[in-house]
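Reviewer 2 asked us to include a model.

Predict the structure of this chain.
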Amino acid sequence: METNKFIDICKEEIVKYFNNECDKTDNFELTTDDVFVVWNCKTLQNNKALLSTTVSDGMYYEITYNGDKNEIYFDAYKKWKNKKISL
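Predicted model (C-alpha cells):
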C-alpha cells in the first residue's frame, strides 16, 4: 500500500475509535487534523505507523498493514509513565 494512503487510513481509524470511545459529555469530536504521525516505516509490502493526537490523554496508536493478507491491525495504548534514567 502506498504510504500516504496508509497514513490517511490510520488517521481515519483513530478518529473513528476516539469519537466512539470518548466521553460524550466532553462535547469534543476528534478530526484527522488532530492526529499526527510519530513514526512510520514501509518494508516491502508492509506498513507500520505510531500515531498520537493533540488530546492530552496519553494515548498512542500502533497500526500495522499486513500486505500479504491485506489486513490492518490496530492497537491503542495508554502512556502510564515517563521517567528519566541517568546512566
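The chain has one helix and four strands. The chain has a mean pLDDT of 94. We have added this to the supplementary material.
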